[in-house]
């Protein structure tokens, strides 16, 4: 092993090695580290993760590591000569890469970047701190999701036919009523809108959510997969009061969850897998379920399947 650019991480030992005491003990010692040459390789044990790096890399920038390896601060070593650093070693490889090259590819997840930022602050690496903070700020300024509003039938067709993802559309137009609404219709209308927004925030990366404000219905859900309509859930009906007709708006939460899950089956080709198909089947037994109980059950079944199959996505489970 030779050359400054060579960095080797060994397999971590069983269980992390943690030491917070500066007092020498039989297995560890404190000392002032003074390397012989800039190219000398140093053995590092960072929270149980083992690394090799050179003194030239570790002292290149004005950081805590330079203080440790230029003799300004004491370091803790074990009997085999590994220098112990009492920090999580998960992102230490990125720390070394930044010190060596002056740049690094940041973790994909926001959580990973925040973890790396915490380590950069500990080691006082200002350039890496700025890089992480800029990326976090850029992500905050990006919209979580974009929901198109349909302004014409042609636009609706273009959106659905041009999208490879499943599509969920909510037609919402309270002004289409010909009669008065029942007492709880406004509350149910808001519940439909709130559920649409919750689903769109959780699944905007996998499903195209669109709103229709020009259709003839008052509240209606439509579900599309592979560019064809799969199902429709109309939430309005006409009821007859004593002397007049009224419009009733319902909130069929369980049915909406079920059809959304069915649409997700068409996210992959050629056919949905058995685990997702099983999750969408309603239980056929002698026990009757209320709409609320059925919705709770579907949310839990969806959550289990989502966690099992889509654990790599940075999304929240459906219904949360």
UniProtKB/TrEMBL annotation:
Residues in BTB domain copies: 40-108
Compartments (UniProt record): Cytoplasm; Endosome; Nucleus
Protein name as it appears in the record: BTB/POZ domain-containing adapter for CUL3-mediated RhoA degradation protein 2
Cellular component aspect of the GO annotation: Cul3-RING ubiquitin ligase complex; endosome; nucleus
Organism field: Phoxinus phoxinus
Keyword annotations of the record: Cytoplasm, Endosome, Nucleus, Ubl conjugation pathway
Single Gene Ontology BP annotation: protein ubiquitination
Keyword Zinc-finger: no
GO terms, molecular function: ubiquitin-protein transferase activity
Pathway per the UniProt entry: Protein modification; protein ubiquitination
Organism domain of life: Eukaryota
InterPro entries, sorted: BACURD1-3, BTB/POZ_dom, SKP1/BTB/POZ_sf, T1-type_BTB
């Amino acid at each position: 092993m030779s050359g400054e650019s060579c960095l080797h991480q060994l397999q971590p030992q069983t269980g992390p090695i943690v030491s917070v005491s500066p007092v020498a003990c039989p297995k560890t010692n404190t000392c002032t580290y003074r390397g012989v040459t800039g190219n000398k390789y140093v053995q590092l044990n960072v929270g149980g993760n083992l690394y090799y790096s050179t003194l030239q890399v570790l002292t290149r920038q004005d950081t805590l590591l330079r203080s440790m390896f230029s003799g300004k601060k004491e370091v803790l070593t074990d009997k085999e000569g590994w220098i112990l650093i009492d920090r999580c070693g998960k992102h230490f490889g990125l720390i070394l890469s930044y010190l060596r090259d002056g740049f690094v590819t940041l973790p994909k997840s926001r959580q990973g970047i925040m973890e790396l930022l915490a380590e950069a602050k500990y080691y006082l690496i200002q350039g890496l701190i700025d890089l992480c903070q800029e990326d976090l700020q850029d992500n905050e300024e990006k919209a979580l999701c974009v929901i198109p509003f349909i302004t014409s039938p042609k636009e609706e067709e273009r959106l659905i036919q041009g999208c490879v993802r499943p599509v969920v559309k909510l037609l919402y137009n309270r002004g289409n009523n010909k009669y008065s609404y029942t007492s709880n219709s406004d509350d149910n209308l808001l519940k439909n809108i709130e559920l649409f927004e919750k689903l769109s925030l959780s699944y905007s990366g996998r499903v195209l959510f669109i709103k229709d404000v020009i259709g003839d219905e008052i509240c209606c859900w439509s579900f599309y997969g592979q560019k064809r309509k799969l199902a429709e859930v109309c939430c309005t009906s006409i009821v007859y009061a004593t002397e007049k007709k009224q419009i009733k708006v319902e909130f069929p939460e369980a049915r909406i969850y079920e059809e959304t899950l069915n649409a997700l089956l068409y996210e992959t080709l050629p056919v949905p897998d058995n685990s997702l198909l099983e999750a969408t089947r309603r239980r056929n037994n002698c026990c009757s379920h209320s709409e609320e109980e059925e919705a709770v059950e579907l949310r839990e079944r969806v959550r289990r399947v989502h966690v099992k199959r889509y654990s790599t996505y940075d999304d929240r489970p459906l219904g949360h």
